[in-house]
Design brief:
InterPro entries: SRAP (IPR003738), SRAP-like (IPR036590). By secondary structure, this protein is mostly beta strands. The chain has a domain of about 160 residues: hypothetical protein yedk fold. About 10% of the residues lie in helices and about 30% in strands.
């Protein structure tokens, strides 16, 4: 898919963006942000895991892959980017793990648009480092799960329908209304697809990771979704 055309952005990526099916923290991911220099949207790649100015090492980003919607506007690490450096993080979907109430292995689910469309996660970006060592980094904002997604987790990425992209990318500060979750009818268009356990190994990557498994291989759903982990 041509992300630059989909998001109306100038492609500033140094290499073509290839499909990834199992993205781990600190990996490069595509983002769409507004470039003040170009006065338009640009498509770039950023390291997943925002690095605040006081970070002493890039490894600190592994702990900052997600920002909670409830605290992002006041967090010392994320508030400056929420006010001035917001971005869209394109994705086809995301994984969650369901832990059964009793003993047994966890079941992986892939949340993706049923019509095969693209998602946009609400994200933040910043540049860390100096001179030639500068690194573009990002985080994804999460919010309380809604609609059918509560069946697999109590939280979810903050999804932005296309009619919210302009407002999210605007430079104005203090717009906490932007953190409202998407409407339930938008979420109703998501498929909760059970997939195999191979996604649990970050070294695995390929379209087979998002293939649905047979019904007789499906493990039972959890009684307590709060036991799950996001990303």
């Amino acid at each position: 898919m041509d992300l630059s055309a989909l998001f109306g952005a100038e492609d500033e990526t140094e290499m073509p963006i290839t499909a990834r099916f199992n993205v781990a923290p600190t990996a490069p991911v595509p983002i769409v942000r507004v470039s003040q220099r170009r006065a338009q949207r640009v498509l770039q790649t950023a390291r997943w895991g925002l690095l605040p100015p006081w970070a002493t090492d890039v490894r600190a980003g592994a702990r900052m892959i997600n920002a909670r919607a409830e605290t992002v506007a006041t967090s010392r690490a994320f508030a400056p980017s929420f006010a001035r450096r917001r971005c869209l993080v394109p994705a086809d979907g995301w994984f969650e793990w369901v832990k059964p109430a009793g003993k047994g292995a966890k079941q992986a689910y892939y949340m993706t648009p049923a019509d095969g469309g693209e998602l946009a996660f609400a994200g933040l970006w910043t540049v860390w480092g100096e001179a030639d060592a500068k690194v573009l980094t990002c985080s994804i904002i999460t919010t309380a799960a809604r609609s059918t997604l509560t069946a697999v987790h109590d939280r979810m990425p903050l999804l932005l329908p296309p009619d919210r992209w302009d407002a999210w990318l605007a430079p104005a500060a203090g717009e906490e209304s932007l953190l409202a979750p998407p409407p339930d009818d938008y979420l109703a268009g998501l498929e909760l697809r059970p997939v195999g356990p191979a996604v649990g190994n970050v070294r695995n990557d390929g379209p087979e990771l998002i293939a649905p498994i047979a019904a007789d291989a499906l493990r039972p759903p959890p009684e307590d979704p709060a036991t799950l982990t996001l990303f």
